[in-house]
Amino acid sequence: MLEQPQAADTTMKLMTLPNLITIIRAMLIPVIAYLLAQQMFDEALILFGLCALGDLIDGHLARRWNQRTRFGAIADPLADKLTMLTVTLMLAAEGQLPGWFAVAVITRDIVIVFGALAFHFLVHEFEMAPTLLSKLNTALEFIVLTAVLVHAAQWLDLSLLLMPAYFIVTATIALSGLNYVWVWGRRARRSMQR
After folding, report:
1. What value does the mean pLDDT of the chain take?
2. For residue 146, what are the domain limits?
């Protein structure tokens, strides 16, 4: 009989406003993919912007109201990554983004995901902890994807700025990916020496 209130308490902790915003952001991913497939760049840009705003709001609320949860710690960065990957893939498929840039973005994320899984199952439980380089890379990826959407929607002609931006972001992709390998490699060695 005592276990039911605990289950209800866990559900209440899970269904916080920050987590609800994260879930809504995740639910918008297929809508954005559909809009991009239909070349409805204006609408896709607006939803992409709303997802980014939601990401800022849910993180702020979770910290301010002390509503950080294990679910939020996993779901929030996962929603970010899935949104960015979806937009990257769809823009590349529509010819709005160079294929090599999309490959660089996807390769980095695959390396990080498989590295995290390997660390979790072979060394120690993995805690999501983005590095400063990773945060910079994510911010720059978001800015570039937004710029591509603005250009595709013909709000502004950003063609002269996009190619240099791709190279800058690709440099941060390489640096942040190597930084993750180095940081988690050191942690793995320390854990194995104990």
Report:
1. 85
2. 3-193
Average pLDDT estimate for 81-105: 95
Measured CA distances, 68 to 74, 97, 168, 186 (Å): 11, 36, 33, 27
Distance CA 194, CA 191 (A): 6
pTM, full prediction = 0.82
Which 3 state secondary structure label does DSSP give 41?
helix
CA distance readout (Å), 58 to 23, 31, 135: 10, 20, 17
Q: How far apart are CA 10 and CA 24, in angstroms?
A: 20
Q: Output DSSP code: residue 98.
A: -
Distance CA 35, CA 42 (A): 9
We report the CATH number of the domain holding residue 22 as 1.20.120.1760
Residue 23 has φ and ψ, to the nearest 5°, of -65, -40
Nearest to 74 by CA among 65, 66, 62: 62
Among all chains, which residue has been given the structure tokens 């949104």?
83
Say what the pLDDT of residue 3 is: 47
- Whole-number Å distance between alpha carbons of 185 and 137: 20
The tally of domains found in the chain comes to 1
C-beta separation of 65 from 131 below 8 A: no
Alpha helices per DSSP H over 123-158: 132-152
